[in-house]
Write a structure and sequence with these properties.
The chain is an alpha+beta fold and about 575 residues long. It has five domains: about 10-150, PAS domain (Beta-Lactamase, 2-Layer Sandwich); about 155-225, no CATH class; about 245-335, Beta-Lactamase (2-Layer Sandwich); about 340-410, Helix Hairpins, CATH 1.10.287; about 415-565, Histidine kinase-like ATPase, C-terminal domain (Heat Shock Protein 90), CATH 3.30.565. It has 14 helices and 17 strands. It has helices spanning about 5-55, 100-110, 145-150, 155-195, 210-245, 265-270, 290-300, 335-370, 375-410, 420-430, 430-435, 455-475, 520-525, 535-545, and strands spanning about 75-80, 85, 110-115, 125-130, 135-140, 250, 260, 305-310, 315-320, 330-335, 415-420, 440-445, 450-455, 480-490, 490-500, 550, 560-565. The strands form four sheets. The protein has a five-stranded antiparallel sheet with strand order 2-1-5-4-3, sandwiched between helices. Strands 7-6-10-9-8 form a five-stranded antiparallel sheet, with helices on both faces. Strands 12-14-15-17-16 form a five-stranded mixed sheet. The longest helix is centred in the N-terminal third of the chain and has 52 residues, at about 5-55.
Length: about 575
């Protein structure tokens, strides 16, 4: 089927409307002109009727020749329709005209006319009948060429109408072409836009309403392109954010099929689910998401739901956010570390309270004895020395806690180039009395020109705490040996070993670095210490991007291998 253009539709519509109006005017004027001439002719016939009526009234009937036109037919009838005289028919004595339409109408209305063929002589007449007193007088003219020409309307009006029609048709063509051109421009421009052309050049639209529409389309197009660019940028930002998120995120459509998920969601799903990742349309069918489905099926006006899942030693938080269009998102977060830190903080709080209780109780007891009892100066001094010793324990605990907090918070510390040999000499000097008391040899076999890079105070705490740990727990008549195992990849690998008792086999070595962990509670009370020394060592090593491990020596004793940044 051929599709008609707007221009053709417009021209055809206007043409049909205009032609219909012109045709109506022509028909109306033609009929009006004919009626006008017919009325004029009937007036002449009516005048002839009047002449006949006067002649009948003056007993001058039949009519003398020359009074009326020779071609005029005159019929005189009574009110019953019986013919009393007819100037055309020779024998009319038995004629009755009451059934003739003009006669019948004249009897009823007083006068009437008709154009018909005569039943008497088969000649077409224009009849005019009128009731006058007790008679019906009918006049008739033959419907010959003269009458036809008289009744025919003038053609000047028709020519005028045709002229107006041609002018109107030309105007319709002009208007159709004018608006059709604008419509074609809009159509071609819209087709160009639908083809997805990036650089669209807007045509020059005419200065009319269609031109305004075209200009507005171009303006909206530029605005839409700008909005699309902004939306695309925001979409990219959102996708980057979702991909880089520390949580697993999955977006679902209203029909509960997957729209998008990041890699972390897939990773977490494979951990908590017994099966591998199903297809996008079946992901919620996994029994892991039974609480999610229950919430989605039975929620009232709630838009948020959260639950917890424990799988394979890991703790996961499952959150659901629903949106007005019935789409929703599921967020999986691994809260194992958070829960572990929470438990560690609880344990640490309990351990701190436990560690503080003993020295505080001792100090309080010694001071109560001094205040509430009359004791000699020697005992008084002894109790004060014991109380002072416990305050040193408290001070050491507070200092160690402060150092651990600073490392946990990744606080900025001063960094410098530290000579390891000089650092170890300082540690040996500071612990000389304790080493001598237990007959411990301190052997530092490191190059004199070895430098490490970092915070000198933390480096000191590493070697000092390892030394104090050996002094307290390794035993007497042993040796401490410090050496460099190797230097590679910008790190120096140290070995700190003693020849003491070592650890019993049932004790896990990895727990040595836990805060407040004690191998033997009773032995710790005897030897002192805050229980934080090795934890400080590990955190200080990790603070400098190093690693540390502990193991029992081949023969006896305990060995620590750790790495620190080397000065290149």
């Amino acid at each position: 089927m051929i599709k008609m253009t707007f221009q053709k539709k417009l021209i055809l519509s206007f043409l049909l409307i205009f032609a219909f109006c012109v045709f109506g005017i022509v028909v109306f004027e033609h009929q009006r002109a004919m009626q006008y001439k017919k009325d004029a002719l009937e007036e002449r016939l009516d005048a002839y009727v009047g002449v006949v009526a006067n002649l009948v009234a003056n007993d001058q009937w039949p009519i003398a020749d020359g009074i009326l036109p020779s071609n005029l037919r005159v019929t005189l009838m009574n009110l019953k329709g019986d013919v009393q005289h007819d100037n055309v028919l020779s024998d009319y004595s038995t004629e009755n005209r009451s059934s003739r339409p003009e006669v019948s109408e004249a009897m009823k209305k007083g006068k009437s006319s008709s154009l018909r063929s005569s039943a008497s002589n088969n000649v077409v007449y224009l009849y005019y009948a009128k009731r006058v007193n007790n008679n019906i007088i009918r006049t008739a003219l033959p419907y010959d060429k003269r009458v036809q020409l008289f009744l025919q309307p003038n053609n000047e009006f028709l020519y005028f109408i045709v002229f107006i029609f041609l002018i109107g048709f030309g105007f319709i063509l002009y208007v159709g072409n004018y608006f059709g051109k604008s419509i074609r421009q809009l159509r071609d421009f819209s087709q160009t836009l639908s083809n997805g052309t990036e650089d669209v050049v807007a045509p020059k639209f005419p200065a009319n309403e269609l031109g305004e529409i075209g200009a507005k389309i171009v303006e909206n197009l530029h605005r839409i392109k700008e909005d699309e660019k902004r939306l695309e940028q925001e979409k990219e930002k959102l996708l980057l954010h979702v991909q880089a998120s520390a949580e697993g995120i999955c977006f679902f459509k209203a029909d509960r099929t997957v729209a998008f998920y990041n890699g972390l969601f897939l990773q977490y799903f494979n951990v908590i689910s017994h099966d591998s990742m199903p297809s996008k349309g079946e992901i919620l069918r996994d029994k892991v998401f039974a609480p999610v489905l229950d919430f989605l099926d039975n929620r009232m006006n709630e838009d948020y739901f959260e639950t917890r899942l424990s799988r394979h030693g890991s703790e996961f938080s499952v959150r659901i956010n629903t949106f007005p269009d019935k789409s929703f998102e599921i967020i999986l977060a691994n809260v194992t570390a958070i829960e572990k830190n929470k438990r560690l903080k609880q344990e640490m709080t309990g351990n701190i309270a436990h560690e503080l209780r003993t020295p505080v109780t001792s100090i309080r007891g010694f001071l109560e004895i001094i205040l509430n009892n009359d004791i000699n100066e020697e005992k008084r001094k002894e109790f004060l020395e014991r109380a002072f010793s416990q305050t040193q324990v408290l001070s050491e605990l507070i200092s160690d806690m402060s150092l651990l907090t600073k490392m946990d918070e990744k606080a900025e510390v001063h960094s410098s180039n530290v000579n390891v040999c000089q650092l170890l000499q300082k540690v040996q000097t500071d612990t000389a009395s304790a080493l001598a008391e237990k007959s411990i040899l301190f052997n530092a076999g490191v190059p004199e020109d070895l430098f490490i890079v970092g915070n000198e105070s933390l480096f000191y705490s590493i070697f000092r705490n390892l030394t104090d740990n050996a002094i307290r727990h390794a035993g007497e008549n042993i040796s401490i040996n410090i050496r460099v195992h190797e230097i590679r990849d910008g790190m120096v690998y140290f070995v700190f070993a003693d020849t003491g008792k070592g650890l019993e086999k049932h004790i896990p070595l990895e727990r040595l670095f836990e805060r407040f962990y004690r191998v033997s509670e009773g032995r710790t009370r005897e030897t002192g210490g805050s229980g934080l020394g090795l934890s400080i060592v590990k955190n200080a090593v990790l603070f400098h991007k190093g690693t540390i491990t502990a193991r029992n020596g081949r023969d006896n004793g305990l060995e620590f291998m750790f790495s620190l940044p080397h000065l290149r």
